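Predict the 3D structure for this chain.
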Amino acid sequence: MNARVKTEFYVNPKNRELSQTELDELARELDAVRQEVIDDLGEKDAKYIRKVYSAVRYSEVAGRACLMLGWFPPTWLLGTGLLGMSKILENMEVGHNVIHGQYDWMNDDTFKGHDYEWDIVGTADNWRHTHNFKHHTYTNIKGMDEDIGYGVLRLFPEQRWEPMHLLQPLYTIPFGLMFQWGVAIQDLKFGKLFQGRANKVKFMQQLKPVRQKVAKKLFKDYVFYPAIALPFGSALPVMAGNMVANGMRNLWTFNVIFCGHFTKDVEIFPRSVLRNESKGHWYMRQIRGSSNLTGSEFFHIMTGHLSHQIEHHLFPDVPARRYREMAPKVEAICKKYGLNYNNASLLKQSSEVAARILKYAFPFKK
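Done. Predicted structure below.
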């Protein structure tokens, strides 16, 4: 954030305001960290994403095969777990990262960011607009980044309080369970439609691909596979397994994303920070608006390496598997410039997110 801009927004005392010269040096050092990885990209990175893609397919096949015998509880549990893992891996480590263009350099049609369509009801095109462009350009800027509360949650004192927020500790749970549906409708602006401020013709044009995607995914999970399971007497177990697997993915995605954006030390910013914002300012905003999660290698893979949300916001087009090796260098740079490197366990970060949801359900101003 530009140190010269005076605002009433909360400023984390753990962060030091930097001069323009320091911000330019910060940008230079972070650019160097990125370039070092870009220069080293090659076959090992391509082999990794192909291996994960194969794991997604094989675990889905195994999970769906087990669910065909879902009338036997242990088989249902195994099948649901495998299918849920497949959906999480596809959503986090493959879909999200490929859509960011992290593997465009491979020139492999399977992993082209502009063409990949992921396995959720939301379309990749809408995500490319709301997430890749708006969120990563205007990260945590109130009124420009729609990921701040997703239009339904008040998570910062700078957000206007509404009476409906009193219920957010309750409706956060179904919101998390149905997170893919929030992604699907985020760019449609239903609020403007209900208020009569949206062009209905344009709205219906935007709705069409979403409606088609929703129909396709609902048919696959709740009609096609249950119908195949009819001869095995497992139509209902298959339907239930698909529903639980989708819920597993939704809750996991919701938790990882919220822990990366809405912990105690994270800041949001006014639009005025965009005034003459340099690359150093932008980098600093990413650091001050993000938080990381500690964990094992398997944990990081299952989060799509969004457990390194700071590195992801700094370098969204770098293959996410590289964030672990970049993290110590980024942390050292943050320490050098007096910037808080927010890194803690899933339990700690989740508890801080829950505290925000509870606190700002009420009209607190700080």
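Confidence is low (pLDDT under 50) at residues 1-6.
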